[in-house]
Amino acid sequence: MKILVTGAGGMLAHDLIPVLGNSHEVIARSRQDLDIRARENVSAAIRDSSPNLVINCAGYTLVDKAEEERLRAFLVNGVGVQNLALACGERGIPLCHISTDYVFDGTKERPYTPFDAPNPINSYGESKLAGEKYIEWTMSNFYLVRTSWLYGKAGNNFVAAILKLAAEKHELKVVDDQRGSPTSTVSLSRGIERLIATGAYGVHHYTDETGGGISWYDFAREIVRLSGNTTKIIPVTSDEFPRPAKRPSRSVLDTSLFPLVTGHQPDNWKEALKKHLA
């Protein structure tokens, strides 16, 4: 299968492209090669490459910055995705798009299923929901994959930040009242590879397995432990660590349907983290 990957310079694409390259022909387009905000360029790129599938890894991911750059976030995560959906829809090409747990408000006591109604509480989440809606309104053949707390070898992420700070400080304060599930870009890439082989279009949730969610504090402690660092991790509340963008307090995604659909079981989060650090 010939697959066009947008956002090829990003953290997810860094691991996704090699995974897909084992069995598919991959056409990689970075932001410099293809700005998804330009509809004419998107249409031309898809027309000229004639892919069997488009996977969109492009996105505006600065959660706090989105509060002051709301229109920019919507231009990329909303309008840019609409451009891809329209161009793919016109040619009958399926689109695989990566979304986020931040489309939910975090008030549900149990993990969110693909059937739960989104209700974002920050500009980033609203912009990602806009992209989801444009796909659902425009297309019939699509894979919409929601994931959370993504980390990988390329790009800024929580794991890299904790490792850097732990090397500089004797103690770190980390929020303990926000729960979710970390996801390795390698794990997600393998999940996407299996999903696109099924033809099972629709909304899917994929994260590493946490057994109901962990806190950022839990995540940080495991990062420090596995790295062999002795930095002390101190739990704090979100009120003690204010950020421009409000975060959902519990945005755990229910991934139980993914193995039933694809036959692929998400990795345990500790094992995925251990492999990443190794």
List the helices and strands and how they pair.
Layout: E1 2-6, H1 11-21, E2 25-29, H2 39-49, E3 53-56, H3 70-91, E4 95-100, H4 123-138, E5 142-147, E6 150-151, H5 158-168, E7 171-175, E8 179-180, E9 183-184, H6 185-196, E10 202-205, E11 214-215, H7 216-227, E12 232-236, H8 257-262, H9 269-277
Helix pairs in contact: 1-6, 2-3, 3-4, 5-7, 7-9
Walk me through what this model shows.
- With 278 residues, this protein is an alpha/beta fold.
- The protein has one domain: Rossmann fold (3-Layer(aba) Sandwich), CATH 3.40.50.720.
- It is 40% helix and 17% strand.
- It has 9 helices and 12 strands.
- Strand 3 (53-56), helix 3 and strand 4 (95-100) form a beta-alpha-beta unit.
- The protein is globular.
